[in-house]
Amino acid sequence: MALSANARSNGGGSATVAQRYGLPISLPTSNPNNITSLQKELMDIMTKPTPGVTAFPDDENMMRWTATIEGPDDTPYAGLTFKLSMAFASNYPYTAPGVLFKTPIYHPNVDFSGRICLDILKDKWSAIYNINSVLLSLQSLLGEPNVSSPLNGQAAELWDKDPAEYKRLVLARHKAPEELDA
Question: Is there a catalytic annotation at residue 117?
Fold first, then answer.
């Protein structure tokens, strides 16, 4: 039996009581089912890689991953690689992961903080989706933005009106993954 978050935050006395009765002092950050699910997905990603996407846990933490997607051919993002962070809730796969672009990106459905407007990451999430399907959906979104529901209104407007200026802004904002780590 674990102590509640309130009991743990009440000071040193709580830890002493927990230790006296052999109770865990900290709450688990995940449950065995989602760890098993994430381990299975990692094995699938490693044994059956999908061209243009990668994803791996961060520093042995199965709840936080780093992913990359390559920009699709015949789009303003062709030849570019984008780094993303993924965070999984304790009830994954029944809750969508939190996904952010770490690479600066100019896109109608991504704001300048890297937050993404994509229905499967919000109200259309289903447990049938997995890490790979999320990354492929994001890769598809690069070439087929939803300009009727933009987070970046200027990008949505330029997407159809001025493709050359749009591409210039994409390239001006992009940084290679190795530049992000520096």
Answer: yes
